[in-house]
Specification:
Layout: H1 2-16, H2 28-37, E1 40-51, E2 55-65, E3 68-74, E4 80-87, E5 90-95, E6 98-102, H3 105-113, H4 119-125, E7 135-138, E8 144-149, E9 152-162, E10 165-175, E11 178-189
Antiparallel strand pairs: 1-2, 1-11, 2-3, 3-4, 4-5, 5-6, 7-8, 8-9, 9-10, 10-11
Length: 190
């Protein structure tokens, strides 16, 4: 009887333990190179944008192909709030059925919506990649935990394996005036 209790206790203890954290398959510099090579991808998820005046929440669809991207924000019922596309020819924003163009997507979005969304940087940050003057902090597992870039602080959480990569599924950006949260429900590498 005592042996059965010991066996049952061991089973309960091991069943309650958290699964081991996903480890990077190689060193961070090699992993960073793999992320740099990931130029074509899609995410679906949710975006929360909050500043001193407004709070917005939307379904997020982002499609990245090389340097070009398209970003679509929809209501929870599927109605498109806006669509923003950046190509080598410039940026196009569709808002309230009207089409607007500019050479810079970030500036176009700011001018028409008042949203300061660092879309150029997000093409890297969404993947958990830092570049340039960003100051990174790494998690124990080796991936990006947070970074600081100009006025932005970016925090990463909920890394999960997607295909052969470990990618972030929760990204929170803050600056002195706003907070942006991106929750990725689905990653697709193309």
């Amino acid at each position: 009887m005592r042996q059965l209790l010991i066996i049952a206790a061991v089973i309960v203890i091991t069943a309650c333990q958290s699964p081991p954290a996903t480890q990077l398959p190689t060193t961070y510099s090699n992993y960073q190179n793999t992320l740099i090579e990931l130029t074509d991808w899609k995410i679906e998820g949710r975006l929360l944008y909050r500043d001193a005046n407004d709070k917005h929440s939307a379904n997020l669809f982002w499609h990245q192909q090389g340097q070009n991207f398209s970003l679509s924000l929809n209501t929870f019922l599927g109605t498109q709030i806006l669509s923003l596309t950046q190509t080598e020819q410039g940026a196009t924003l569709i808002l309230d059925g009207e089409t607007y163009q500019d050479s810079d997507a970030k500036r176009l979005l700011w001018r028409l919506t008042g949203w300061h969304l660092p879309v150029d940087e997000l093409t890297l940050w969404i993947k958990g990649l830092h570049a340039g003057d960003a100051i990174p902090t790494f998690a124990e597992e080796g991936w990006l935990a947070e970074l600081r870039y100009q006025q932005w602080q970016v925090e990463y959480d909920n890394y999960r394996k997607t295909d052969s990569l470990v990618l972030p599924h929760l990204i929170e950006l803050t600056d002195p005036q706003r907070r942006i949260k991106i929750k990725v429900n689905q990653w697709t590498t193309l």
